[in-house]
Each structure stands twice: as structure tokens, then as C-alpha cells.
Amino acid sequence: MEFGVVLVVLGGFLIGGAWSIWKADHDTKGRTGPQVFFAAVLFVAAALATASGILRLV
Questions:
Q1: From CA 25, how far away is CA 55, in angstroms rounded?
Q2: d(CA 38, CA 1)
Q3: SS3 at position 26
Q4: Interaxial angle between packed helices 3-23 and 33-57, expressed in degrees from 0 to 180 and rounded to the nearest 10
Q5: Beta carbons of 57 and 15 less than 8 angstroms apart
Q6: How far lies 41's CA from each of 24, 37, 57, in Å?
């Protein structure tokens, strides 16, 4: 298995984690600041992993 495929799969898992954190809001308070920050960090990491995986496959 090529390393690019591993990076694309890792990016998919990170996007899933970001989506899970984003959807886990509190009923009355909504999303908290740290929750939004952590979801954004995971999304950026997922985008970087996916982009680098695609570039390694090309």
C-alpha cells in the first residue's frame, strides 16, 4: 500500500472526527469555543493530510 493512500485515509478519519465534534453541541449552550477550535484544527489537519496524499499519488 502506498503512503499516499494512507494519508488520504487518515484525512478521511480526521474529517470524520471534526464532523463528530462539530455535531456534538450542547442542547442549551450550543457549541463551545474549545469545541469549535478543536474541530477547526482537525479539519485543517484533514485537509493537509488529504492534499499531501493526493499529491504523493500523482
A1: 35
A2: 30
A3: strand
A4: 160
A5: no
A6: 16, 6, 24
Query: Whole-angstrom Cα distance, residue 52 to residue 2?
Result: 13
> Exposure of 14 by Cβ count < 10 A (0-12 exposed, 13-18 middle, 19+ buried)?
buried
Distance, in Å, from the CA atom of 39 to the CA atom of 16, rounded to the nearest integer, reads 10
Structure-block grid coordinates of residue 53: 496524499
pTM of the model: 0.84
The distance from CA 50 to its chain's CA centroid, rounded to whole angstroms, is 9
Q: Can you give the pLDDT at residue 8?
A: 95
Rounded mean pLDDT of 10-20? 95
